Amino acid sequence: MCGIVGLWNLKGKPADLRTFRRATSLVRHRGPDDEGYLLVHSSKGQAIPAGGRDSDPALHLPPLEDLRPQGFDLVLGFRRLAILDLTPSGHQPMANEDGRLWVVLNGEIYNYLELRELLASKGHTFRSQSDTEVLLHGYEEYGEGILELLNGMFAFALWDGNSRTLFCARDRLGIKPLYCFRDSETFILASEIKAILFLRPDLRSPHYAYMRDFLQSGLLDHDQLTLFEPIHQIRPAHYLKISPRTCHLQRYWDFDQERAHSRYDYSHPEETLRFLLRDAVRLQLRSDVPVGTCLSGGLDSTSVVALATSMSSARLKTFSSVYAEEGYDEGHFIRIAASAYNTESHIVQPNPQDFLATLARITWHMDEPTAGPGVYSQWFVMKEASGQVKVLLDGQGGDELLGGYHSYFLPYFISQWRLFLTRKDPLHLARLAAEAFQIWRLTRENFFYLGFRIFLRKALSKISPKVRAGLGPSVLHPDFAAGPSSCDTSPRVVRLTDPLNDKLYWDTVRNSIPALLHYEDRNSMAFSVEARVPLLDHRLVEFCLGLPPELKIKGPLTKVLLRRVMADLLPPEIVNRRDKKGYPTPLAVWLRNGLYEEVRDFLLSSPGRDLQIFDRDAMAHLLREHHSGHRDLSWEIFRWISCELWFQTFIDRSPHHEPPSA
After folding, report:
1. Residue from 30, 31, 23 nearest 203 by CA
2. pTM of structure
3. What CATH number does the domain located at 2-251 have?
4. pLDDT value, residue 426
5. Do 559 and 552 touch, CB atoms closer than 8 A?
6. Are 157 and 180 spatial neighbours (Cβ–Cβ below 8 Å)?
7. Within 13 Å and on the Cβ side, how many CA atoms surround 540?
8. Greater confidence, 472 or 152?
9. What are the pLDDT digits (tens) for 549-576?
């Protein structure tokens, strides 16, 4: 896990090396262990490595500050968090034998040992024990085809001196970030947007349409856009090949149901899922530094802990957050899991003290606003882990792949209703009615009401923005709310004919997982911790999306197949747990107590009043509605706070080298 920055002056102008070094230092928290640079004269193909203050003296690299531009129009910068091969041999930027290929890699190639053996059989020799060198030789052998062989989380930039092109790629699910800006004269890339902004302060231009959609829906990272209008992200499962005259973006992976059914054994789903789970955890335990796990006491995180414990000789460290407030505390289940696997349990109990100051630091690291208060709890978990482990496994992804959220009951119900219409089986209808009643007892949600609400939402989305803005109370200023949307308003493509799996697919690639991975990456990297997500191993993603709905939900029971597979390994209290949380944070309670006045004063006196984004009178009314207990608007209020802090941090001034003080 590392931080990368790149700059290419496409018309040959020498790069400003001093400014570039300072931009790279903005992502030092992603890699405090080492520092490296590559200077390239792109038209000549000449490449020279350089070092910095954190570079290992054994490498004998010339300091970047001592070099003159001398026509170097392309520069790559790297900050290393040493995880595999802790020696200087793992230094980046890394070159192949003849110095024609150079790469900076953020992330991990988990199957690097298997690929190393394959490449060695083809005549490749290796000088290090790192996964980065395997990527270099893999590109030598297969070109862009190496992406299909990689199992990992990665974002990298590779200079190909043979073709004079820069080859950039991102992993299938977007676990590792990569942002870019391009115009006729410049191409810039970075792991975090703040580094791009330092190189080009003029790019601090808000994408107001994107912000409008975010404030209304909470969606983030669902396409290539960012809240800085000129800056885009390279989408997950895409690669970009760029030269001074060409720019080619290509998708290299997507879920294909037919391919999944030819690749995985669906006739024995329990055995297949069990193997894939174990193998994903096995690969992601590969590390030359201590590995721990996040533990919420839920089915997903406890499954990861159980499997990791069975494969680890050392006592596992687990990291959790708990709260005293009723309805938010998972401590009971955390203690059960920690006791069952004899983990060294570390538990934090965040509180609202310095809430706004801490959230300002989080916003600086995120580069963009955040949608919900779970990031606050996650921040303290990562802080607790720092200094104790360098790698953390997390259970992210299980809900979206196996139907873990209660919101998935409705598409499941629709799937089963369609099945009844096909079969015309009265017994199936009777079972469906019984399941609907059981789900209602668990959630107290009425399917017909939910269905009508979804239909109404879709209908309203087709109405003009001005009409939409006038429907119901809104915290947005009427002129701002009536503006255009950044989202594609055409009907969503149906990728899978089954409604439940189609919903899970879109939540995995667009609506849910990308934003959650964004939060996890920045919160962990803020404390120089590498977060890994074994349940998002692309093989598990492919297999799970191909499972039928009844192996995911049955009546009020979610993640049916995972419960069966893990039943022999997990405590029964965890296997049978039916409530669903997820970094539960009692912001709703805090906003009805001591935090209310601080947040109210912050929001109603913020400079955002002059931007005419918010209707402050409406905001004051909605704040009172929440404070009085009439409505729970805690998530909406969190988004208002996050947006205000984002404006103050990135738009009102240039991002500083240090985050705001907490």
Report:
1. 23
2. 0.94
3. 3.60.20.10
4. 81
5. yes
6. no
7. 29
8. 152
9. 999 999 889 999 999 999 999 999 999 9
